[in-house]
């Protein structure tokens, strides 16, 4: 499995571990983003047991190595706009035709006029119709990119792994949020409040009590710690 997602979407990798598809169970995450340098327990929870590979995608050699990693994978997880990987010469449809399960998480889906738009929590929520109108104006409610889309991606990936054919799983954060919003809402209140950064945010209070957090187990890998080992195994000339 090759995991090219940011930290948040990496939860999908943990939920869709391909234990029944041979021994390709290492993950090679993309270069770490800012969360890698945040709380260590969060990083460890997401990446314990993963292998970390660091590549220079500004060089032809780094791009060629990434292509070979993708070609060797049973599963590819990514959360970039379609044109980003195509620019590097990596085609999801070709990988699927060769038998790869390819899970793509994007803001608005891989097709349509918004396929290459960047999306974040608030604008994706608004695009899904998740907006509360208050005396201060409309406020987006919910961050669908935080959990819901990854649940759909993990379940779909695990189901695809039960088969013997490649599959392209197209997870749109906006469409998943709109689908989830069709159900009845739990009793809650919405109020406008100052955030720690000094801006305006939304605070919701639900009747459901939060589950206690469990402590993290093993530590996640240091950035690039497994580059040589993974490339020796999967990218031999």
Structural features, described:
By secondary structure, the chain is of the alpha/beta class. Helix content is 32%, strand content 17%. The chain contains nine helices and eight strands. The strands form three sheets. A four-stranded parallel sheet has the order 1-2-3-6. The chain has a two-stranded antiparallel sheet with strand order 4-5. The protein has a two-stranded antiparallel ribbon with strand order 7-8. A hairpin with a 2-residue loop joins strand 4 and strand 5. It is globular and about 60 Å long. It starts with a strand and ends with a helix.
The main sheet comes to: 4 strands, parallel
Strand order of the largest sheet: 1-2-3-6
| Average pLDDT for all residues | 76
Number of DSSP strand runs: 8
Helix content: 25-40%
Overall radius of gyration: 19 Å
Oligomer: single chain
Separation, N- and C-terminal Cα atoms: 20 Å
Helices and strands, in order, run as EHHHEHHEHEEHEHEEH
Number of separate helices? 9
Hey, roughly how much beta strand do the residues contain? 15-25%
| Outline type | globular
Category by helix and strand content: alpha/beta
Low-confidence stretches: 20-35
